[in-house]
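RETRY 2/3 - previous attempt timed out on the joint model. Re-submitting the same 413-residue input unchanged.
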Amino acid sequence: MPLSLLKYGLRRTYPVTGDIAATPDLKPHYDVGIIGGGGHGLACAHYLSSRHGIGSVAVLEKGYLAGGNTARNTTTIRSNYITPQSIAFYKEGVELYGEMAQELDFNVMFSQRGQLTLAHNDSTMRSFHLRAETGKFAGIRAEVVDAGDVRRLCPGLNMDEGGSLEIVGGLWHADGGTARHDAVAWGYAAQAARRGVEIHQRTEVLAIETAGGKATAVVTNRGRIACGQVLIACGGMNYDMGLKAGIEIPIRCYPLQAMVTQPVKPWLHTLVSSVSLHTYLVQSSRGEVVIGGGSDPYQLYATRSTLDMKEQLAAGAVHLFPFIGNLKILRQWAGITDMTPDYSPIMGASPLSNLWLDCGWGTWGFKATPVAGKRLAECIATGRVPDIIKPFALDRFASFSLVNEMGATAASH
Ligand SMILES: Cc1cc2nc3c(=O)[nH]c(=O)nc-3n(C[C@H](O)[C@H](O)[C@H](O)COP(=O)(O)OP(=O)(O)OC[C@H]3O[C@@H](n4cnc5c(N)ncnc54)[C@H](O)[C@@H]3O)c2cc1C
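RETRY 2/3 succeeded.
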């Protein structure tokens, strides 16, 4: 053991400074109040302070940092969506993940190992051709592969030859990957805090005061603060927070569950998902097999997990990889996902001139954490909505300009 480490261990006091300060007292006024200390709120705080020199920012989090959906997600990162608008947006997100460790000086364990979506019939293959061509045109790596390629990309997969779920091919997305969710959130928090952003945990926003077409203040369980601008980034509580500002955001909330097995030696080197089985798997850096699927079929504000879903996910996973049937399930959990009618987010302006929306992230928002934070910081700092997020405006529902991604979010988020 090096002597310095021994000396350090024997000290009575430790010269260590935390990444973020303990929750400070609330000031009466901030230039920007961010409601929600998940990945998105923290990323926005980082970009406001690092790119736009705005440090008078309070991130208001009712629980602990990034304890909402950011903590519960299965970390699929990809850009192989259906519409050109979505592909352009998520492509920027994937690129920002590639730079994130440098940007934050924090190891976020971004692992760009590729994502394979399986096709079990010809009609799925036809839709994959469309997605691959649209993706290539938009500059991402997406290609249709046959059964032989699937075998090579993912040894050990049950191809079910001659069976009802025979794998006939897939959509290979070499840009896809994963990152460590809590590292992403803490990396943004640490950088923002370094530039003067205040992070207020256990600070619940109870009301938003409005006057003259603007949000004037937010009322919290720790006091009232006036804000020059306000961002709503509340994950599963976005609909309710909108109502506090008098805005009805078209969101319905559904629980989404996932689970992990005990850790095993690394064998699964890609992200794998099956549309027909509504199941996807990824092996974490710890060796645990993370298994997820579709949302619960009913609206609910609850984070309990169910035996029903455990059975469904386990059946899908064991069908794809029969040899994992003996693994023990270590944890199962759920988050409340804020689903929009077209399975795309709602970003940008609201009916109040200084209140901005970062909502409708449903089952797909982790991958967008850096790009949403960056682009919403731009909105707040300049008052202008960048072109790349204009298609995701709230008013698209009034003008029927939907960005329909239902077919691309169903199985693998
Ligand atoms: C099981 C599961 C798997 C998922 N898998 C993926 C995936 O593989 N890939 C992907 O891209 N996405 C995935 N998602 C979706 C993703 O997790 C979310 O879209 C994303 O984390 C949203 O981040 P956020 O910062 O907007 O919300 P959150 O992380 O939920 O943060 C919002 C914060 O707001 C706080 N808050 C709420 N109300 C108040 C209030 N009144 N006052 C103050 N604070 C408040 C909450 O406590 C919370 O911490 C998954 C979600 C779940 C549940």
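Residues 207 and 323 are 52 Å apart (CA to CA). Closing ticket.
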